[in-house]
Structures are given as C-alpha cells and as structure tokens.
Design a protein that fits this description.
single chain, 55% helix, 172 residues
Length: 172
C-alpha cells in the first residue's frame, strides 16, 4: 500500500499528508522569504552580521575548493593566493561559484539530474579561468606578498556631467 491508497481522513492518511507538508514547507519559505534588495549574497547591501556570516561561509567554501580541486591541478596558475579575499573580483566570483555549488548539491532534491555536471562545466571551470585572467591574482601568486589590484583610471561616479549627458540623449 502506498500513500495514494490511504484514506486522507484516516490517521495514516493525515500522517502522510503532514509528512508531505513538512517536506515542501522549507522550499516554500525559501521561495517567499522577504529579503533585502540584492539578495543574501549582494555584499554591498548586507548588514554587518550577515556579511560576517557570508565571509565565514565563503572562507570555508574556498578552503574546501582549494583542497578538493586547486591543489590537485597540474597548472599552478589556478591556485588562489592567500590574499584572495582582498581582491574584489575574486570575492564576487567565488561567492557566485559557492552559491551555484550550493544549488547544484542541494540535498532536498533526490531526483537524478545533470546539475552536478552543469556546475563543473558551466560554473567551476569558467570561474577558475576567469579568476586566472581577470582578478589580478597573478601578481600575488608569483610573490610572497599581497599586491593591490591595479587601480587604473579614476573610478566612475554619477556626476552632474553624466546626468546632463543622459538628459540630453534621452529627451523626446
């Protein structure tokens, strides 16, 4: 006899219905939970306590990533320097990789899928390639000390000149 054969009003039927509700309830809370603008991984908007928690999670994820993958690669240029957390691009990309990993390995889904392969081929390896090329880690990896990422030109700010340009180019 399976759950479909149970009388929904019997004790066994009610118990089975309760188990189903308890199974889907966490997913419903996740879907409808009110979050701050930008979500729980948008560093710019996180309150201090949430940022501390995310830094802790990210540090543990990077330690796991290093031990599981990076130390086992033949190409040492993929290794993260000890100061990876001081490189904003690395922080953002590693946060995204961690979130994608969490979703791919979500234990609430017992269905077989290609999510794990997708994580490796669409998230892990492209992120590692991106970090190698874009994050400014090479200077730190090749030396024993942190090198600030190249500052380049002055950072963009929304200036009055910019706003005038936008106004002139969007007016009817």
């Amino acid at each position: 006899m399976n759950d479909d054969d149970l009388d929904p009003m019997s004790v066994e039927g009610l118990d089975a219905r309760l188990v189903n509700v308890e199974t889907i309830l966490p997913d419903l809370f996740d879907m409808y939970e009110l979050r701050a603008a930008g979500g729980p991984y948008y560093w710019e908007t996180l309150p201090h306590d949430q940022a501390v928690k995310l830094w802790d999670e990210l540090g543990k994820f990077v330690a796991w990533l290093d031990g599981r993958y990076l130390t086992n690669l033949a190409d040492p240029s993929y290794r993260l320097p000890d100061c990876w957390y001081r490189h904003p691009i690395a922080v953002e990309e590693l946060t995204a990789l961690m979130v994608a990993h969490r979703a791919a390995y979500d234990t609430r889904s017992a269905k077989a899928s290609s999510a794990l392969v997708d994580w490796h081929h669409r998230a892990l390896w492209p992120t590692l390639d991106s970090l190698k090329i874009r994050a400014g880690l090479a200077g730190c990896r090749d030396r024993s000390e942190h090198r600030e990422p190249h500052a380049g030109p002055t950072a963009f700010i929304v200036s009055d000149e910019y706003l005038r340009h936008v106004d002139m180019n969007t007016s009817p």
